[in-house]
Each structure stands twice: as structure tokens, then as C-alpha cells.
Amino acid sequence: MAGQILARRCGREVTPGEAVRVPVDVVCLTDGTPLGFLADGVHRVWDPTRVIMTFDHLDRVRMPALHQGKRAFLDAQGIPPENFFGIGRHGISHQIPAEHGWALPGAVFAGGDTQAATMGAMNALALATNESTHNTLATGDVWLIVPECVSVRLEGELAPGFVAKDVTEHLQQVLAGVAEGTIVEFGGPAVEHLSIDTRLGIANVANNIGALSMLFPPDRVLLDHVRDRAKYAYEPVHPRPDAGYAAEVVVDLGEVRRQVRGPDDGAPPRPVEELDGLEVTAAYVGSCSSARIADLELVARIVRGRTVHPGVRFVVTPISSLVAAEAARRGYLETMLTAGVTVTTPGCGACFAGNQSPLLLEPGDRCVTTSVENNRGRMGSPEADIYITDPAVVAASALAGRVTDPEPYLEDRAHAVA
Amino acid sequence: MPSLRGRVWQLGDGFGCHRIVPNRFDFRRTADWAAAEEHLFEESGLDFADRIGAGDLLLAGTSFGRGHAHYHLQAVKALQRRGIGAVFAVSFNAIFQRTAINEGFPAWAYGAPLAELVGAGDELEIDLGTGLARNTGTGGTRQLPPVAEVVREILDAGGLEASTLARLAR
To answer: Which end of chain A, N or C, is less packed with Cβ atoms under 10 Å?
Structure first.
């Protein structure tokens, strides 16, 4: 699929290893994306109608003129006000474009943040442009070494109470040494049973395994999702039966188990039972790899009628304003707040110490989290331990004050959600 | 881009960003690249780390630069400030390689063929435009495919930003 998108955009077939410049359909900035020479008031973005900006990092210490300053830039560049997902419409750049029809099938999507491959869930070729984003804003293209593709066939079914985060932890092991530098193309009978949110959560892991991006096929679920949201014309790209892959991997979703990985990024994943009983002082459900509605549902199910352990501060940061509103409508927010969970404004939250979040880890803290990375200092003090796991383990551990298998908390609540 | 000539160091497989500059530092927030260079290879596990210097060329195995992209830039900046000429790996973390090239630092997947031409301590001369590589000690040569034109254009300009500004001015 990636090869077809590139061929379409370059006007010719492309082969792995060659370098090309690819026109993009949309560029998504965040409040943290440097604007480089575009801040000089002279240079212009290539097409203001194809630029969007989301507020997610919310770092007012580093960027005191956060809202008005970014707004002034967008206005000066002629970027339409509705393309600005500022306070009130804000959320993570790895969710907003899918919710609002800016990441579309067959499109080339450039994102200013590291996890931009997430939009591959939308059948878009999604590329993280990071510090180079202002160049793409100015030229409307991105350079690329055409990668090999790896096929991942998803089979089986996720067990109840499991979410995208469990799949991504599994994929990091299955695809280690297989997908580095490639684009991972998903397929197989399990895809049609995965929600768009689950696909977004899965594609979010590309950067963690060193893949350039990930791509899901455009099935009925996806096309139904984008039909009334699409902000521009799009042409889905379907997998070709004769597509050549550098590797083909089969993943049985039924084999996915809960895992915990910590105290830092040097530690291997372990089954939750192995760490059972380890005391925790902080818990977080948030970041672009979690905190979608299915994740919040799971948290609500577990904490309903229970109380967060007095030795733990448990913070939940919904991924976007729309997800927060949906969580409110379903009663999840009330359930969580009643249990003693602190629910913050949407955004990247505690995932990275530079963001606005009340969780900020202190020396000696031990945190269980659904967020993206657990290198020392990522969430605050380098003397805090960070264990990455799924939202069910985080919620159950926050109640118990220690790492806990959430199954007993889920068993009696298979049908009650809020 | 003129040809590169320098002493070769071998770094092996899976050499991640945190071994270039430890992840407990976050110089991307402060853009203090001089400080990043002070900590270059501090936790690399290499017993020859303090001997890697200006003009040297790094030869690496698979997955060079692996790790979260938040930390790629400080790694590239530290390597550049040390004066290291290039890194040639068997394979790269794709986003790390992009960041390196965007900063004007040559990072190209010549690792496998170069490992057959040069070893640690050898001097390598390589022309990225023609792909001709030479072990100056043995005189042995190897003709590699040249670095892709789009990439050479960026490296010649000194990085993506300079290359973009030149394109916009044309």
C-alpha cells in the first residue's frame, strides 16, 4: 500500500532504497512544533488550507505566549480558524486528525510530533517530520528513503478487557529486529473487528520499534468512519495481492497477554504476575498510546465503587476533548472522580516531564503508566521508576497500591461499564 | 559533498540513542548542544569512547540510533559537535537517519559492504557522490552505489533547512 501511495504521488513506480520528495496532503503541527524560518513573517506555508494545529503539550513554562502566540502565527499565515484545535477543541495530534477527518485513506500525512505514524490507522501514509516540519510546511513535500514493507497478518481475537496497548507491547517483541526502518502493513481477518481507536493505538507503536510508519487497509469500518468527516477528496489504497514484502509475520491476537515493563527502558517486558505486589506511588492512563474511549471504559469498570489507594496519586488524561466529552456522557468521568482519580484537561499530560500535568514524578516515585516511553527522567525525576503496562493493570494497581493483575477486578463487571 | 577521510571505529549492532547521549539528559528542550557533546558516549559501554574524535568515521551494525525520536536530535548534534564525519550502519532507525541527514550529518546504509573493506583503526576514504570507498592502509577499494541525489543535495547544503531555503529562492 505504501508503494502505491508513493507511486501515485511521485507519478512513477518507486523502489526501496531510492530517495524521493513526496507531496503531502496535510501537515499537522502541535503547540510544541518549532516553526523555524516560518516565524520570520516573510516565508509562507505552501497551502494554508492544509495545515492544522493541535494543542497537546501545553507547556506554558517554555511557551508563555502559548495560545495567543500560536494563534497569531496561524492568522498571519491565513490558516483557517477551524484548522486550529486550541483550548476547548484540543487533544493529542495523534487523535484529532482521525476524529476530524484530516487524516484520510490514501493521503500523505506529515506530523510534527514523533508518534505521527499513528495516522497510518486511517490508511494514510503518515510520516513524523519532527524538527524538520517547517521545511515541509514551506515546500509542501517531504523527502523519504523508500522503505521496504513488512506484512503483519492479524488473526484471532483480543480477549475481553484487552486493548491496543496490550497489542503494542506484544508487537514490540514480535517485530523486534524485523520491522526496523520499514513500513508495517497490517492485514488479515482480525482487522475488521478492530475499532478505529484500537487501530490508532496499534499504529502508535511504529516509532518504538524503529519502523518508519504503519498502514492499515481501508475496510468498511474505516470508510464508514471517514465518509462524513473528510476535509478533502481522498482515494483509498488497497493491498495488492502481488505486493512484495521484506518479511511476513502472523500475529494471533488471542495470544496477547498483559505485560509490565520497567523500571526503565533497559528492562524487558514481564507477565504481570511476576511483578505482583510491587508497591506503586503513582499511576497514569494517558498519552497518544492510550486514553481513548475503550481505555477509559476499562478504567471506569475497574474503579467503579472503589477507592484509589491513599498512597497513590492516579491521574487520567483523556486523549482529546471529544473523548473527554464522550467519557462524561457515559458516566466514566463521574465514576473515576468519585473513586479519587484526578482527571485532567486532554493532552499529552504526564507522558513527558515537560508537559503540564499534576503527576510529575518525584525522586523515589514508582509509577505504572500506559504512556509511550520509560527512559529515566521522562516523566520527572530520574530517580523515579516507570513501569509501562495497559490501563487495566494501571487502574487495578492504583486501587491496590501495588502492581496487581486486574482480572479479579474485571470478572464481576463484564457487562457493567459505568 | 567532498569525500570523507577518517579513522574507523566499530560500534556493533543495536547501538541506541541513549548510548550516544544518555536519555536522562534532555538537551532538546534547552538546545544546549555543547552540553550534549560533553556527555557524548558517556554511557556507551565502549572502552575506546574517549578516543573517538574529529574526522573519525563510525561503522555500525543494525538499528543504529534506535530509541524514541525525542532523543535523536541531541544524539546527532553531539556527534556533529565532536566533529565525527559520518556514520555508516548496516541499518538505521529510520527516523534517526532522517534527523541526521536533515541536520547535514551523513548517515548512510553502507555498513555491510564497508565492514568487508575496513576494520577498527583502519583509515577509510569515501566519496558519497561516486560511492567509491578506499582503505588507505591496504589500498583496497570498493565501488558502492552513490548516496541518493536528494540526500546529497541536503548534505551538500549543510542540512535540510539550508537546502529548503535554496529551493525556495530558486
So the answer is: C
C-alpha cell at A27: 501537515
> Model pTM greater than 0.80?
yes
Q: How many interchain CB pairs under 8 A, A with B?
A: 104
Report whether A336 contacts A283 (CB < 8 A): no
Which residues are within 8 A (CB) of B166 and not within 5 positions of it... i.e. 6 or more apart? B157
- Between positions 2 and 21 of B, the ones with CB within 8 A of A are 18
Show the 3-state SS of chain B.
Answer: CCCEEEEEEEEECCCCHHHHCCCCCCHHHHCCHHHHHHCCCCCCCCCCHHHCCCCCEEEECCCECCCCHHHHHHHHHHHHHCCCCEEEECCECHHHHHHHHHCCCCEECCHHHHHCCCCCCCEEEECCCCCEEEECCCCCEEECCCCCHHHHHHHHHCCHHHHHHHHHHC
Spatial separation of the C-alpha atoms in residues B92 and A197, rounded to whole Å: 30
CATH topology of domain B3-169: Aconitase; domain 4 (3.20.19)
* ipTM given for this complex: 0.90
**pLDDT tens string B47-93:** 999 999 999 999 999 889 988 888 899 999 999 999 999 999 998 98
Q: Do B68 and A377 touch (CB under 8 A)?
A: no
Chain B stretch 100-159, residues whose beta carbon is closer than 8 A to a beta carbon of chain A:
102, 148-151, 154
pLDDT in tens, A4-56: 999 999 999 999 989 999 999 999 999 988 899 999 989 999 999 999 999 99
Residues of B in contact with A37 (CB under 8 A): 161, 165
The CA distances from residue B87 to A253, B76, B97, B109, in Å, are: 38, 10, 10, 9
Q: Where are the domains of chain B?
A: 3-169
Chain A residue with minimal CA distance to B65?
A: A210
Beta strands A183-187 and A213-215 are parallel
